[in-house]
Amino acid sequence: MIRRILISLLVVGISPAPALTLQQLEALAREAAPEQRLAALEAEALQHRLDAAQAQGNARLVGGASLADTRESVSETEIRDYRRSNLQLGVRWSLLAAAREREQASNTARTALQQARLNEQEVLQTVLRQLRRAYAEVWHIGERVRLSHQFLQSETVAQGWLRLRMREHLLLESDRLSFQSMFDLARRELVRHEAAQADALGVLQRLTGQSLQPFVAQPLGLQHECVSLEQLRAEISQRPAVAQAQAEVALRQQRVQEAKASGMDAGVSLVQSLSRDIGGPSGRSTGVTVDFTLPLGDGPVRQARRAAASAELQRAQLLLDTRLADLQRELTQTHATLTVRLRDMVSSRTQLDAAQEAWRIAELRTHSLYGDVLERELQTRYALYQAAMDYSRARQRQDEAVIDWLALAPADVKCPAATGLPPLPDTLFVALAKAVSLQPAPQTSSLAPQQTVATTASLGFFDWNGRAWLQRTAPWSALPPGTGRLSLSFTAEQVKRMAEPKNAWVVRQMLNNARQRGIRVEWLLGDPEWVQPAGRPALLALLRQLSGFQFDAVNLDLERSQLPDAAQADWAEQVIDTLHEVRQTVSWPVVLTTHHREFADKVWVQRLLDAGLSQGVAMIYVSDPERVVEIAQPLLQGPLPLAIAQSVESALPGTESSATQGRRLALTQWQRLAGQLSNQSGFLGVTVQSWKHFQEAKP
């Protein structure tokens, strides 16, 4: 019986933040994006400049001092020579020039501020567009990374039968290299997409100012139907780029009018003066002075200024017309691109369906025909992989076209949220990872030709000490030949450490080591109380911590019999609810491990599939292979792909466990069992409980 994970190590304080939605990321970017902050600071500086221009007055403090030698007639016969010092202080109000200068400075600052505010809107639209495109990249590239991982899982098995076909002189070396290049190209795509996904995540982090580790993207809920081409054409003047050009035209029109004014100025001064004759009496005076200035010969200057202002106005008008034409052309091109992308996705989906049907037929032929059916199956599976990658790219291009289209709409246009494109079906990922291997077929007579039969089954192990596989001394070489599945469990404390950025490379290295060996790695989680509403948040909290890693699946070990009797009646319904919440939390395929009798309920199995379950592992702890086949065959005829769990635990009796047989005989028995069930299309192999007990068994 598969042991439950001890939850004594589950610390209550571990509660990682839930994944941020696109709307939450947009709200963060509005405040934290560097481009947006720079635009806001520029507008703030221009606001202060406008305030300064408007606060400028037309009064000026004037003053002066003089010292003069003076000869003055006192009478007809007397002349007075004396030296006089004079000090003047007053206020002068300009009647024309100061007001004109203040108005010009205010208009210039006001227009600059208006353009800065419009530029701030344009920058915000650009930031949101960049964020949405990066978010779409993370989501869609994540799907393509999974597709590549799934296809590469079958590499080891494919290499084995390719070498066997070579030894039997049924395959040319050039053909073998051609088949090998399929996996090489898939590996290249994987590396390229992982780098692109990391780059897109970096863009999200830069725009939001958040670490976003781990991060799980969801389908974009954007729709384009709420914005029509005619509506955007009618509202094109509301675009920030057009409004900026219009503001420039208005400013240049004012400059033309200002250039017509003359340079004349007039002013009124109130002056108080003090004078003192050196060696004589002092005096004072108070007066009001009216003055004016008129430049001489300024006709050519004013004419040149008017010509310059007129040229600047024509330039601004031409810029406005050019921007309107460019935006009209952009609208037309973006709408045409959106239309093409929508059609492309439909076409790509049709090609994917055709490739999936071609692979299904090729895979069925491997069960009953011989010759080059294996090569044909691999060719069609690679074609299916390419079609799936093309379909994913088409989905991304459609989302990007919708993002570009909505970016052209005015800021006040709000479209209702949509459900977004659904994830790629789990059956597609299962098909890509389905490894077909060769085994000798029984001969009907000594003269019968040597034949081979195909099987898609592989051997797997549960290991409740998953930490061992993170070590440099991980026992990869000790795995029996044909091992294609590892279900690894970790304690809550180990999960917490694995989620730390400094330890992430260790987890990724372990996953890469497994995939290079063609081994599927599942995160094994087991606690009966997690199906109950009170215990489910603990499960979801654990899942979020490692959601950034590319596990091939999450395997939930949920057993009805481990719950108290009073809680068992609601178990089946609670499993459905748990599956729904798990699928909303992580993007990995979900596997359910439980007692085989649960999978006998066909209605419940269909509900599991509807809830998003990808595979099941039926616990059939019976050591008699014939009895196992008898139990498993009806289950495998259903729509849910199943692996069969066998036990090698020494604590169980010999009727339930293969421990007493030893490793060699147990492997032979499991291989024979896989051969007997290989004609069932839903059979995924034998999974052993557990790796620890298998190692402890006698040879």
Automatic annotation (TrEMBL):
<keyword id="KW-0472">Membrane</keyword>
<keyword id="KW-1134">Transmembrane beta strand</keyword>
<keyword id="KW-0732">Signal</keyword>
<keyword id="KW-0998">Cell outer membrane</keyword>
<keyword id="KW-0812">Transmembrane</keyword>
<feature type="signal peptide">
    <location>
        <begin position="1"/>
        <end position="19"/>
    </location>
</feature>
<dbReference type="InterPro" id="IPR051906">
    <property type="entry name" value="TolC-like"/>
</dbReference>
<protein>
    <submittedName>
        <fullName>TolC family protein</fullName>
    </submittedName>
</protein>
